[in-house]
């Protein structure tokens, strides 16, 4: 099977690991992972990559993404079916299942997760920066948007409400996927935890979903298969994403 794989670069090491062992013929494009902070830009970039593929070049276009704050919603391929994991974000793919994702977030809601790709590529083409730097930039961007819509006083109130999330974080967790310089990743995560006064944790990664995305088969329970000419939509239930018929 010949596949086009469009992947967030947060999966760079893991995708390359599975691609090297795959029976499929793969052409891979990695997208800067900092784009997930601006879903509309992520959607635009992904659609450009999908549209660039000529008809008949591949049997499927596989996306190593989750819903990503709606960044993959409304994507469409006119000629080639799309395969997308049923996941809210990349953490599900690093943990191996939606059930494990849900359990982790229920037990430890104040956790910020770090992976090899996050640590290595935070200063890449789209600068990710530290958790504090990232949210500071996002806060300023959203303030300007709210100011234009609702006025300065209302914008300040809305941003203050949204910013309460950082005070609720108390844990930095390194997801060990077994690739790269594991000791360096541990030290980085420990440094983040110490600088913020957070707990530090290491979690064993489970890359079974990512492996199945690269190799197949694609169980409908875990993956959405979108026929050519139809679009991805958020489902607002446990299935995460669904097909939107454009005909």
Descriptive tags:
3-stranded parallel β-sheet, 10 helices, alpha/beta, globular, 5-stranded mixed β-sheet, 247 residues
Account of the 3D structure:
By secondary structure, this protein is of the alpha/beta class. The protein has a domain at 2-92 and 207-244. It is built from ten helices and ten strands. The strands form three sheets. It has a five-stranded mixed beta sheet, sandwiched between helices. Strands 5-6-7 form a three-stranded parallel beta sheet. Strands 9-10 form a two-stranded antiparallel sheet. The longest helix is centred in the middle third of the chain and has 20 residues, at 131-150. The two termini are 28 Å apart.
Structural class: alpha/beta
| Sheet with the most strands: spatial strand order | 2-1-3-4-8
Q: What is the averaged pLDDT score?
A: 87
Major sheet characteristics: 5 strands, mixed
Q: What is the ordering of alpha helices and beta strands?
A: EHEHEEHHEHHHHEHEHEEE
Break the fold down into its secondary structure elements and pairings.
Elements: E1 2-8, H1 12-21, E2 25-31, H2 39-51, E3 60-64, E4 82-85, H3 90-95, H4 98-107, E5 111-114, H5 116-121, H6 131-150, H7 152-162, H8 164-167, E6 171-176, H9 182-196, E7 199-204, H10 208-215, E8 223-226, E9 231-234, E10 241-244
Parallel strand pairs: 1-2, 1-3, 3-4, 5-6, 6-7
Antiparallel strand pairs: 4-8, 9-10
Write a concise synopsis of the structure shown:
This protein is α/β, with parallel strands linked by helices and 247 residues long.
